[in-house]
Design a protein that fits this description.
Elements (H helix, E strand, L loop, with lengths): L18 E4 L6 H12 L3 E3 H9 L3 H8 L1 H16 L6 E3 L8 H10 L1 E6 L2 H14 L5 H4 L6 H11 L1 H6 L1 E4 L5 H12 L13
Parallel strand pairs: 1-3, 1-4, 2-3, 4-5
């Protein structure tokens, strides 16, 4: 049995192509993609989770021990399988996925790319929040330096160019993932049926 068919999905809409969301570290693309999956009934493919499962370690552990190339090698195994599935998926990309030319070309040809852009102060605040919960969060970037506006800006400068070049930019500002999901759905032009309305009192 195809592992992607484990759940029986009943999408409320059927897009022509998979929808790929990407963001900077702390940009919450994964959480936003998960909420869009819940709201639309479309299956979710969270790329980092799939890579971690295949690698048997965290993204941080994989990149620190083996380098970014090892991460991309596993992404190249996962992405074609998701793109080929009969039901278009909502795909949460890694923040470096489009730096790989092979993956970038494949995703440009077979999906709709969307970049959830947040201002640097918002990214710093979310990274700080995550680091208080788990100090090793994003250690691949902040192992030898503290989280700071300057460090995050340098990271954005390195990771953002392919997203600006190839993805539709959705400015989500300070929005939390539920509101960011709504903005993405609006940008896609999807009108979802109203499943439940709070009774008027």
């Amino acid at each position: 049995m195809d592992e992607l068919d484990y759940y029986s999905y009943r999408p409320l809409i059927t897009p022509e192509q998979p929808i790929c969301l990407a963001s900077m570290p702390g940009g919450q693309a994964g959480k936003t993609a998960r909420l869009i999956s819940i709201l639309t009934g479309l299956p979710l493919a969270w790329l980092d989770r799939s890579v971690e499962h295949r690698a048997g370690t965290s993204i941080d552990g994989l990149v620190i021990q083996q380098g970014e190339a090892a991460r991309h090698a596993l992404e190249r195994k996962e992405i074609p399988k998701v793109l080929a599935h009969k039901t278009p998926h909502i795909i949460a990309l890694g923040e470096t996925t489009l730096l790989d030319q092979e993956l970038c070309g494949l995703l440009r040809a077979k999906s709709r790319l969307m970049y959830l852009r947040r201002p640097v102060p918002s990214l710093v605040a979310e990274l700080d929040r995550l680091s208080t919960k788990r100090r090793t969060t994003y250690a691949r970037y902040f192992l030898d330096q503290p989280i700071s506006p300057q460090a995050v800006q340098a990271l954005v400068d390195r990771l953002e160019p392919p997203l600006l070049a190839h993805a539709q930019v959705i400015d989500v500002g300070e929005l939390r993932p539920p509101s960011a999901a709504g903005r993405v759905i609006e940008a896609l032009g999807w009108e979802l049926p109203e499943v439940w309305t709070r009774p008027q009192t």
